[in-house]
Design a protein that fits this description.
176 residues; alpha+beta; Small Protein B, Chain: A; seven-stranded antiparallel β-sheet; 4 helices; 11 strands
């Protein structure tokens, strides 16, 4: 009878469930990452944060634009991520650009350490989201794009957009 409750008239009704376990809310996204890098593999990592950092992130005050992750002393760290100071914080407020520890399994850290030793591969945070009340980061193994790769991706995106618009215009012309 879990999830049910008794009404005044003695009948059982289902209780409303607020959020499913698989849902998550994106708090910050690094849109430039897919433009500047080829994203190869993605990992989910928890972040060690203070209370004012969590409140500031929930308010949408986080920037991932120039941030990256690094493996140092068998620990994963998120560096250069800017979390603005919490507006209602006191003297115990956090520093905006401090390094933040990422929580990953040991075998994931070892695998990422081996991957990042290869030439040209780095760890880039693609998004930060809220999952089951916890702040998580999606870290991608990325290889930097050359200028001609970026131009090719732009050309491909433009071609797809033009084709989509042509199909839409063609449908509109033949429909009564």
């Amino acid at each position: 009878m879990r999830g049910n409750f008794l009404t005044r008239r003695g009948r059982f009704q289902k209780a409303a469930v607020s959020m499913k376990k698989s849902e998550f809310k994106i708090l910050s996204e690094n849109r430039q990452a897919s433009h500047n890098y080829h994203l190869l593999e993605r990992y989910e990592a928890g972040i060690v944060l203070s209370g004012t950092e969590v409140k500031s992130i929930r308010a949408g005050k986080m920037q991932l634009r120039e941030s990256y992750a690094r493996i140092e002393n068998d620990e994963a760290w998120l560096l250069n991520a800017h979390i603005s100071e919490y507006s209602h914080g006191n003297r115990e407020n956090h520093l905006p650009m401090r390094g933040r520890k990422l929580l990953l399994h040991r075998r994931e850290i070892d695998k990422l350490l081996g991957i990042t030793r290869e030439k040209g591969l780095s760890l880039i945070p693609t998004k930060v989201y809220l999952k089951e009340g916890k702040v998580k980061a999606e870290i991608a193994v990325a290889k930097g794009k050359q200028l001609h790769d970026k131009r090719e991706a732009d050309r491909k995106r433009t071609d797809e957009l033009e084709a989509r618009n042509a199909i839409r215009a063609n449908k509109a012309r033949y429909e009564p």
